[in-house]
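agent> fetching stored inputs for the flavin mononucleotide docking request
agent> found them:
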Amino acid sequence: MKTAIVVYSETGHTLSVAERLMQAYKAKQEDATLFRIESNIHRTMVFHSPTLEGFDHVVIATPVQGFMPAAPMGLFLEQIGTLKGKTVDILLTQAAPWAFFGGTNSLKKIALLIVAKAGLPSKTAIVHWMSKKREQQTNQAIVDLAM
Ligand SMILES: Cc1cc2nc3c(=O)[nH]c(=O)nc-3n(C[C@H](O)[C@H](O)[C@H](O)COP(=O)(O)O)c2cc1C
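agent> prediction call returned; pasting tokens
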């Protein structure tokens, strides 16, 4: 199985979790590639969008911003071609220690965007950055998504 981990990250939180996920895939000898998407400062345009052709599995990794997935990740998902036949996991980071502070809503929004592209939403994980259990949550996210 070929996996693409697509990351949007502004202050490095989501990227750090995604990199650990990447290491977990590598440790299992699985074929995984990490792509970063970038945006302009206003978060209205995305650059460096990877093509997901040839990948069987995708991980969408993004922070929550304003109770929504970060806008550049939403734009990326709207702009890409079909996700037909691909399973898609979602990895979020958010500051608040509670999923109802935007995490749950962001999972729903991303799942809808995946379905709109004929992809199959699969596993999900949220790391709450301000939580005392952040490290535990990060480890659990990696177990849930990569093991
Ligand atoms: C503009 C903006 C809006 C945010 N909105 C939320 C929010 O609604 N809920 C939340 O829990 N965290 C919110 N955060 C915090 C980020 O989700 C959190 O710090 C995340 O881990 C940052 O990830 P990154 O370093 O990969 O960009 C917001 C951060 C920014 C910059």
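agent> quick read of the result: The two ends are 13 Å apart (CA to CA).
agent> awaiting further instructions
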